[in-house]
């Protein structure tokens, strides 16, 4: 027999995309109001002929090199695309056999972060000749609800332990989010069956993304030495945490 827990983030978050656009588009829009940029993007997304949709700016350079077919903002994501809750604090709930969440038994905790990826943009391209700065559009759909989470299965005689939850995070222009999650050093795939969100507002900006400084996901196959260090640090932290709890007679 097994029992299951559903781990998720806060009720606030959204969908974020970072995608390559033309440099002329960035130069034109970087000193203009965000509301004007949003109106122009929404007008483009409508699929109407140029100039016929309210908010369309006829002076704007093309957002893509080939404008025969305009990709919607959520398709312009060659740099980054994620839908996630904001922040790194998590909550856990028990699940019954019908996938119903027991809302009365909520466990709030801050997981151990194994590593973090930075995917920030900048206002100007890098000046170093080795920099590989590309012009980008950042679009963020702010939403409220459930953005998906991780289902952890345990044996009946096991107790859910928040200290065994570890994560990796992404830091970007609109905050920090949890990207990957492990329980007892085993990675858990994100479960999107519980996703249910409501849109609140849109945000957009243009800038430059320096690909030379782009942080990639740590691959256990190619970065074994780094992973060994990451897990060693976690083990040390876990040992210290449990020692402190034992000294205070806290149930672990």
User: In terms of per-residue confidence, which ranges show pLDDT below 50 for 5 or more consecutive residues?
Assistant: none
Using DSSP, what is the number of strands?
Answer: 12
Main pleated sheet = 4 strands, antiparallel
Average pLDDT score:
89
User: From the alpha-carbon coordinates, what is the Rg to the nearest angstrom?
Assistant: 22 Å
Oligomer: single chain
Overview of the structural elements:
The chain is α+β, with helices and mostly antiparallel strands and 252 residues long. The protein folds into 2 domains: 2-217, no CATH class; 219-252. Helices cover 17% and strands 37% of the residues. The protein has helices at 23-29, 34-45, 224-247, and strands spanning 2-8, 12-20, 80-85, 90-95, 107-109, 112-118, 133-146, 149-155, 165-172, 175-183, 186-188, 196-210. It has a 4-stranded antiparallel sheet, with no helix packed on it. The chain has a 4-stranded antiparallel sheet with strand order 3-2-7-12. β10 (175-183) and β11 form a beta hairpin. The longest helix is centred in the last third of the chain and has 24 residues, at 224-247. The radius of gyration is 22 Å and the shape is globular. The model has no long low-confidence stretch (mean pLDDT 89).
């Amino acid at each position: 027999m097994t029992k299951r827990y559903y781990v998720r983030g806060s009720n606030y978050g959204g969908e974020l995309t970072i995608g390559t656009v033309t440099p002329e588009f960035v130069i034109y829009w970087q000193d203009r109001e965000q509301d004007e940029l949003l109106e122009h993007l929404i007008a483009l997304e409508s699929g109407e002929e140029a100039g016929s949709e309210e908010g369309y700016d006829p002076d704007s350079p093309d957002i893509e090199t080939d404008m025969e077919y305009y990709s919607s903002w959520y398709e312009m994501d060659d740099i980054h695309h994620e839908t996630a809750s904001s922040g790194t604090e998590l909550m856990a709930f028990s699940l019954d056999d019908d996938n119903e969440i027991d809302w009365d038994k909520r466990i709030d905790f801050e997981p151990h972060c194994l590593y973090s990826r930075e995917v920030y943009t900048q206002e100007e391209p890098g000046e170093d000749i080795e920099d590989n700065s590309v012009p980008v559009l950042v679009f963020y759909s702010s939403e409220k609800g459930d953005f998906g989470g991780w289902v952890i299965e345990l044996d009946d005689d096991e107790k859910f332990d928040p200290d065994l939850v570890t994560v990796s995070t992404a830091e970007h222009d609109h905050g920090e989010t949890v990207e990957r999650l492990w329980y007892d050093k085993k990675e858990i795939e994100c479960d999107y069956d519980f996703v249910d969100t409501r849109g609140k507002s849109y945000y957009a900006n243009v800038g430059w993304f320096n690909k030379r400084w782009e942080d990639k996901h740590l691959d256990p196959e190619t970065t074994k030495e780094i992973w060994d260090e990451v897990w060693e640090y976690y083990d040390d932290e876990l040992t210290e945490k449990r020692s402190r709890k034992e000294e205070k007679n806290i149930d672990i």
